[in-house]
Each structure stands twice: as structure tokens, then as C-alpha cells.
């Protein structure tokens, strides 16, 4: 087998090796399967590895290469898939007992598109139940550990996908992001993660959490790899009426906005706030960009303090509607009882975990008659105000930079109080509410208990401005 530092191996680099015949798809696949055998017992990123199919597909691709066929752009690229994205014939549990025995009957659009480009799917990764959480502790199946310190969480809800990439157990991964679930675990584990513009990637085949906020996106080892994957994933899809193709005009001299409200964030009456050394890491990235030709300036996003209250009303409302379909009749778990109502009740009691139940209750409450206007209706108006903040900001600047999360990875069990967990979403949720694209990439590390923990920097752009994120992100990677 070719000798190479496989942890540095990116999609672009492996393609060149495949093309020159210095590496075979079989060898590439075996690198990742070996790594999974070596590490995943401890880290727990995967719920299942699709070993058998992988060998067959690898053989088939190697044969085509030997026969002189042109190599498709993602041939041989082993991708890990979050457990809420459907792959025909494979299980998809969304981290929940409710769907423990569910097998997907069709491919999600992203899976079909990536498969057509030659990608291979390594396995299903662990996640918070139905994508609700920021630590993967809410998975019904197991704990996933942060590879930088196994006493700490990997973030969530796409924790398994982030660990698979960060620990070299996948070349890239798919996640979903409703309020930060791609970017936050990417930041905690030291990977690149992109939440695309709302509608840029089809949601067909994604098990829905909150449909007006959900997006599928890539986690990768480099900004270039995330860009490449996104280019194959994006585009209008007749199966998702909210999807569309879009681009915006390129800009030469990119102006970068630094939101004052984020850098001074401290939650009123609580201890949570932006941690000093995390801020310093991100400031260093801003300085580097500034010294290398980017104009940087302070901007304002005045409705930042309403971001979390708004999200934690709208999201549960949508969750309660989306999860109503899990009634024990149509999908997954089915508990027998005397009457139909008792069957519903027993199935939902046994099938859902605490966090999911909490959100269904909250959501049903904010949508109930008499409270609808006061909560849901009001939160919709706040959402528009938050979106307007971004519209105004993007009249002045082309990209907005911030920390991805106010603090590095926390310890297991440290955030038992649900509100403490929710507060960590302060910088990631705005992009979902506004529908804009946002990228998290590593920008350094901070020390906690003698361990170096990764810090993520977040770049946000106007609707369909992903290319801007890639341009600035790639430059920043070179400068760091
Ligand atoms: N942490 C956020 C939540 O718990 C975001 C989850 C997500 O993006 N799926 O809702």
C-alpha cells in the first residue's frame, strides 16, 4: 500500500493519487475501515459501518479505473452519514428508539447526487435524538466522545459525523443543521462544517426536525473539500419545493463585519458568556485577515438578544408538528394496548427521550389556541426583525465573522440544565433564522484541564453567498 499520511489526505489529494494509479479505491477504503476498528470502540462515532457494500463498490470503481474510464470527481471518497439522512435499504434511526427498526425505502436527494459523483458511504453516525441537542448526549443509543479529550462531548447534534472526520475515520461526512448542529460539533472537534443557505440543498430524505430551519451540509477536513462536496449536493430538486439554485455576484474587495453584540455577549443574570481565550483566538483570525488585504469593521446585529427566545419558540412548534407522524402506526416502534389512543400514548412514551418530549410539549403549548399569537405569531415577527438585521449588515459588509460557539467542548453531564445547553447556540442559530449560509472552520485551540481543545471561527454570507465563504475560508486556512 502507498505510504501516506492519511490524516492529511483530502478529497483533492486522493483524487490525484487515484488518477496516477498510486492508490486504489480499495486501499483508500481500507485506510478508513482500519482506523474505525482502531478507534471507534472508544470514540463511538458510528452506529453502523456498511463494510460489505463498501468492498463491492470499491472493487467496481477500481475495475473501472483499470479499464481506463475517467475518474468521477468523488470516486473513492468515503463519507460518513448522519443517522437522519436516508440511504435506500439501510437503517435510519435518527438517534431514536422510535425508529430503531426503520429501514429507508429511498435515497435522500443528497445521497443520490453524491453517489452519482462516485462517493462511497461508510456508515451511519450517532446523533442527538431527532437532532435535538448540542452534545450527542441525547442519542438513545450511546455516547460519542470528543477525540481531543474523551471526558468531553463532541458537540451535537451531528456529533458522530464530526468525530468521524476529526479522528480520521471518514474523509468527510454529512450532517444536518437546524440551529448549529453541523457547525458547533465541527468547532468542538476541529473540523470544517457548512450550513448552506436555506433551500440550497434539498431536504428530501432528511428526517425533519424543524422544516423552516433544517439544512443538510458537509463536514470535511478542509474548506476546499467542503466546497467540492457542496458543489455536488446543492441545486433545485422537484422533491423539495423550498429548494432552489442560486448564486450572487462575486465581489473583489471583500469587507468583513465584526458584530459587536457577539463579541460582548454575556447572558443577563447568568454566568454564560463569550469566553476570553475563545474570543482572543477569533480576534487573531480577524487580525490576520485584516493584515492581508481584507477591510474589517465593526457592525451591529441589534436583535441578537432575541435570537434564542425566538428559536426556542419556533423550533419546538415545528418539531411538535413534524413528530406527530410517529404514532406507532405508520413508522417504527409500535406498542400494543387496549385502545388506539392508548397505543399512541404508549408508543410515544416509550419511543421518545426526555429532550424530545420536552420540545413536543413546548411546541404544542406555543401553538395552542389562546397562546398562538402571543408566542408563535410573535416569534415569527421577531424572526423577520432578525433577518432584517442581516439585510442591513450585508449592505455594509460582504461577510460576517464571529466565534462559532462561546466556549470550547464541555464535559459530559455538565449541561444538565437544558437552558445552559441552549445558550451555547447563540452564535449559530441566527444563520438558521435568517436562512443565510454559514461556515465553521478551526482557528486555533484553548487549554482546559491540560488539554488543547479546538476553537471554531464562523463566517456568514448573504443568501446564496457560499462562494464567498469558501474564498475567505481558504485564504484564512493559508494564513493561520
Ligand atoms: N443545538 C440546537 C438544538 O438543540 C441545534 C440542533 C440542530 O441544529 N439540529 O436545537
Word description of this protein:
The chain is built from 16 helices and eleven strands. It has 480 residues and is an alpha/beta fold. It has a domain at 6-233: Amidase signature (AS) domain (Amidase signature (AS) enzymes, Alpha-Beta Complex), CATH 3.90.1300. The chain has an eleven-stranded mixed sheet with strand order 1-3-2-4-6-5-10-11-9-7-8, with helices on both faces. Strand 10 (438-448) and strand 11 form a beta hairpin. It binds glutamine (GLN). Glutamine (GLN) binds next to loops.
Given helix and strand content, the structural type is alpha/beta
Strands ordered across the widest β-sheet: 1-3-2-4-6-5-10-11-9-7-8
Which term fits the overall shape? globular
User: Which cofactors or ions or other ligands sit in this model?
Assistant: glutamine
**Would you state the CATH class of one domain?**
Alpha Beta
Under the CATH scheme, the architecture of one domain is Alpha-Beta Complex
Q: Based on the structure, what is the oligomeric state of the protein chains?
A: single chain
Helix content: 40-55%
Span of the ends, CA to CA: 32 Å
Q: Averaging pLDDT over every residue, what do you get?
A: 95
Taking the sheet with the most strands, its summary is:
11 strands, mixed
| Number of distinct helices | 16
Fold-level CATH name of one domain: Amidase signature (AS) enzymes
Task: Give me the count of strands.
Answer: 11
Amino acid at each position: 500500500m502507498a505510504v501516506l499520511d492519511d490524516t492529511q489526505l483530502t478529497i483533492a489529494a486522493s483524487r490525484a493519487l487515484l488518477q496516477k494509479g498510486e492508490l486504489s479505491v480499495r486501499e483508500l477504503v481500507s485506510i478508513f475501515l482500519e482506523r474505525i476498528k482502531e478507534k471507534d470502540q472508544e470514540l463511538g462515532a458510528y452506529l453502523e459501518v456498511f463494510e460489505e457494500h463498501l468492498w463491492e463498490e470499491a472493487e467496481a470503481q477500481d475495475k473501472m479505473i483499470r479499464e481506463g474510464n475517467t475518474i468521477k470527481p468523488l470516486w473513492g471518497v468515503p463519507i460518513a452519514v448522519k443517522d437522519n439522512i436516508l440511504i435506500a435499504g439501510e437503517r435510519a434511526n435518527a438517534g431514536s428508539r422510535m425508529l430503531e427498526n426503520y429501514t429507508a425505502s429511498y435515497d435522500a436527494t443528497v445521497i443520490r447526487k453524491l453517489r452519482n459523483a462516485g462517493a462511497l458511504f461508510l456508515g451511519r453516525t450517532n446523533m442527538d435524538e431527532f437532532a435535538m441537542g448540542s452534545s450527542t448526549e441525547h442519542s438513545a443509543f450511546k455516547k460519542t466522545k470528543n477525540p481531543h479529550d474523551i471526558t468531553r462531548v463532541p458537540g451535537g447534534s451531528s456529533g458522530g459525523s464530526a468525530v468521524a472526520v476529526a479522528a480520521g475515520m471518514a474523509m468527510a461526512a454529512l450532517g444536518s443543521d437546524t440551529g448549529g448542529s453541523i457547525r458547533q460539533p465541527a468547532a468542538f472537534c476541529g473540523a470544517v462544517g457548512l450550513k448552506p443557505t436555506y433551500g440550497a440543498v434539498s431536504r428530501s430524505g432528511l428526517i425533519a426536525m424543524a422544516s423552516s430551519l433544517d439544512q443538510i451540509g458537509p463536514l470535511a477536513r478542509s474548506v476546499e473539500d467542503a466546497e467540492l462536496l457542496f458543489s455536488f449536493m446543492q441545486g433545485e430538486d422537484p422533491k423539495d419545493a423550498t429548494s432552489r439554485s442560486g448564486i450572487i455576484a462575486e465581489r473583489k474587495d471583500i469587507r468583513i463585519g465584526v458584530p459587536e453584540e457577539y463579541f460582548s455577549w454575556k447572558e443577563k443574570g447568568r454566568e454564560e458568556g463569550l469566553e476570553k481565550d475563545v474570543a482572543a483566538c477569533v480576534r487573531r483570525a480577524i487580525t490576520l485577515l485584516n493584515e492581508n488585504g481584507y477591510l474589517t469593521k465593526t457592525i451591529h446585529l441589534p436583535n441578537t438578544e432575541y435570537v434564542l427566545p425566538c428559536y426556542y419558540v419556533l423550533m419546538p412548534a415545528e418539531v411538535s408538528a413534524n413528530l406527530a407522524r410517529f404514532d406507532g402506526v405508520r413508522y417504527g416502534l409500535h406498542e400494543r394496548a387496549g385502545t388506539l389512543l392508548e397505543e399512541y400514548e404508549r408508543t410515544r412514551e416509550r419511543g421518545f427521550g426526555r429532550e424530545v418530549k420536552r420540545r413536543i410539549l413546548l411546541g404544542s403549548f406555543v401553538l395552542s389556541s389562546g397562546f398562538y399569537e402571543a408566542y408563535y405569531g410573535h416569534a415569527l415577527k421577531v424572526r423577520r426583525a432578525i433577518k432584517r438585521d442581516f439585510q442591513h449588515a450585508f449592505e455594509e459588509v460582504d461577510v460576517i465573522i464571529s466565534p462559532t460557539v462561546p466556549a470550547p467542548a464541555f464535559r459530559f453531564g455538565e449541561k444538565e440544565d437544558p437552558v445552559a445547553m441552549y445558550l451555547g447556540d447563540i452564535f449559530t442559530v441566527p444563520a438558521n433564522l435568517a436562512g443565510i449560509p454559514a461556515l465553521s472552520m478551526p482557528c486555533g485551540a484553548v487549554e482546559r484541564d491540560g488539554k488543547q481543545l479546538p476553537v471554531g471561527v464562523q463566517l456568514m454570507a448573504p443568501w446564496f453567498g457560499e462562494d464567498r465563504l469558501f474564498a475567505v475560508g481558504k485564504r484564512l486556512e493559508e494564513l493561520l
